[in-house]
Amino acid sequence: MNEIVISQNTASSLQLYDPQKGLLSIAAAETAQKHFARAKNLDGLNKAIEEKLKAQRDFVLWWDGIGEKSGSGPSQRCRSSVTPLPIAGRDGLPDRRIIHRWRALEDQGKFADTLAAAKEKARLLCEGDRNPPVTLNTGEIEWYTPPEYLEPVRAVLGDIDLDPASSEIAQETVKAKHYFTKADDALNRQWHGRVFMNPPYSRDGMPRFIEKLIGEFRAGRVSQAIALVHSYTDPGWFHDLAGCASAICFTRGRIPFVSPYGEATAPVHGSAFFYLGSCPAKFVEEFGAIGLVVLPVIGA
Q: SS in 3 state form for 10-54?
């Protein structure tokens, strides 16, 4: 990690920063955010979102400037007061992967982009759009696959050679041998080997990535693949993918995708895992505990 240059005034502020209160501020803002989202109160929701992002930024500034170096954290006497924060571990501090995700907020431009995107999503929610467009694994706001869903993926594929719609943070859990980020323009590259794909959930991104996956599989460059998509059954891309898949798992319950800042989502739709390859029995064995597995009848 690059060394952080801290001014004398900032260093003084960090010395006075109470990480315990900072985590509680994050927890309080998250609670307020959920409340105002249910009430469709846009002003209150926007204020809660901004307070939460500021609190996350303040915490990671302290962590990078003082906390990690000193090994300090909430005292044993007060750790119990941190328990309302779901992301706090046994020591009262967030997981280091979550702290790493918050680190993007240190950049003023990234903070402004993240805040603007979150407020736009809040506006759509409060104006009645129950399914505002959310981009997964691409764009300014990214959402990552929880690690417990990647274990059966590896069990089926053996390993993940390529994640074509990813990021550095996502690879902390995906751990693919190779991956493409938004900057790599995956749609204009060849894909090889065993692929796991959680594609962009944008209206144009999803069908383009699905079309690319099908093309690479039929060309023989992709030997096996598992694609995680939402379970909308009406779009053409869904039927195209089903026509190429050996097995499909419709998840029991909704997957709590994780934001770059450690927040689990409350999705409004279910998900489906599509398996492309010659080992559907292994897919049934591993994904049977996750949901309903069906084997498409090709040509029916």
A: HHHHHHHCCHHHHHHHHHHHHHHHHHHHHHCCHHHHHHHHHHHHH
